[in-house]
Amino acid sequence: MTRPRKICMAANWKMNQSIHKLESYAKDLENFSKPSLSKITEKLHVVLGVPAPFLEKAESIFRPKKISISAQNVHWEESGAFTGETSLNMLNEIGIQMTILGHSERRTLFHETNNEIRLKFEKALSKNITPILCVGEKIEERQTGKTFAVLEEQLSSCLSQEKLDGKNFLIAYEPVWAIGTGLTATRDEAHEAHKFIREYLEKKISKTVAEETRILYGGSMKQDVTRELLRSTEIDGGLIGGASLEPETFASMLNIAYELSP
Ligand code: PEP
Fold first, then answer.
1. How far is CA 85 from CA 75, 77, 107, 155, 213, in A?
2. Which residues belong to the active site?
3. C-alpha 57 to ligand 1 mean position (Å)
4. Would you state the pLDDT for residue 163?
5. How far apart are CA 260 and CA 262, in angstroms?
6. Atom of ligand 1 nearest to the CA of 103
7. Which of 135, 149, 193, 227 could staple 154 via S-S, CB 3.0–4.6 A?
């Protein structure tokens, strides 16, 4: 099976882990990776989305292993009176090249709007930081047949730039009802949503952008469903929360993704 895009396996640690365990996580990831972490990172794009205070140390430990470190959120302003926020310049200063944006926990718990996410997305691109833009429907939206309308609204509010380059951003389809709940979307459900997103990119931006953009699946992705989900070549990898906290489990998911990579 030829895959059109390089698989990306991105961990989202959320507000978990300890900075003092970064070295042992790295060591365990090496130990459990088959055939080896270096072979895996040649074929896969591996990303760790870590809490802000870990970013610089994580970058120094994982960059030599060819693993990208990602922030989990960012503010669009350059600097100023925004207590508790992190600017893109600050990420640039410590060599961070990626950030998750618009995660459903940010949308729900911190009331982030599509417009704010658009400002963050556009600013991230302008600062050469690759956003992983999260989109996804709530259970009541799925049950009332609104999944595609919700996805379209979330996408259209962010992806309005004409000069988008599919290599400079990723999308994570994360059905909200699957995040942290143990419920995973079936391959068919995920495939259908990913296909919708890709068709949207083709229609509204360009065929090239649609072909290049990696669309990850997120929502209780664990070892047992990794192979099944990645069998769809519409699914270019995963954004993995809970299952990424244990290096052994995350490594076993990387091993599967490696096997499925050409
Ligand atoms: C996430 O945090 O983006 C996520 C998908 O979490 P989990 O894998 O725990 O559902």
1. 6, 9, 16, 24, 28
2. 103, 174
3. 23
4. 81
5. 7
6. 3
7. 135
pLDDT in tens, 230-262: 999 999 999 999 999 999 999 999 999 999 998
Reading the block at residue 80, the tokens are: 């100023």
Q: Which domain holds residue 235?
A: 8-260
CATH number, position 140: 3.20.20.70
Tally of structural domains, the chain = 1
pTM of the model: 0.97
Is residue 2, in this structure, part of any structural domain at all?
no
Residues in contact with ligand 1 (CB, 6 Å cut-off): 12, 14, 103, 174, 179-180, 218-221, 239-243
CA angle, residues 218, 192, 142, in degrees to nearest 5: 70
Atom of ligand 1 nearest to the CA of 100: 3
Residue 75 forms part of a structural domain: yes
